[in-house]
Amino acid sequence: MGIIVPDLVEQYLSSLNRTHDAVVDDIARAGVERGLPLVDAEVGALLRVLATAIGARRMLEIGTAIGYSGIWMAGALPPDGSLLTLEMDQGRAREARDNFARAGLADRVNVIVGDAKLMVAKVSGPFDLIFQDGDKQLYTPMLDRLVSLLRPGGLLVTDNVLWDGEVVPGYLPKPVRNAADTRAIKEYNERITTHPALITSIIPLRDGVSISVKKYDH
Ligand SMILES: C[S@@+](CC[C@H](N)C(=O)[O-])C[C@H]1O[C@@H](n2cnc3c(N)ncnc32)[C@H](O)[C@@H]1O
Question: What is the CA angle 78-79-84, rounded to 5?
Fold first, then answer.
């Protein structure tokens, strides 16, 4: 459980998340057992809701890990839709491919191995939805490129923007997370909330999720 939303509220939200899927549940269990930093099911459901709401056909993810959030996203795609997901760790990328296949989504998902900072210069947009969940210190350096890859009305969704509350001055008596990451996320939050091409709302769900929509007149 996180430390932003009280445990009982989180348990209640979790009890209402009824999108049961054996493969998704199995990957979540493996993630917890191995201490992998996967999104929680509530954030997964949010991604699926957003992708469905905007009728997303092309999506991009930064930070695949073993494919958990990607399955939530790709599950919203039509049969001819696509998710391109970037991961620098070969072993995780291999597992992700297996997991996408187990979920019956292999035909819609392309896992690319490499440094996302370099890869995003090579991919071509436009994307309907981009999920940023990679290296926190790359959030700001990658922002303008990701915005340029979004279609007008497209969504940039970013995880961990509240960073266990550590970005909030005075919230924790003794911060424990990497201070450089904390500074990077604070800077990112400033940028996405003042970016001329974006309208942003931050949801205090789990570790904090920002949702930015690219303006139509930009
Ligand atoms: C928080 S995890 C992603 C979790 C995944 N989105 C999920 O919820 O199922 C971040 C992932 O980004 C990868 N990563 C970190 N820096 C990266 C980079 N520069 N390029 C590509 N992947 C990177 C890490 O190896 C890690 O697997």
Answer: 80
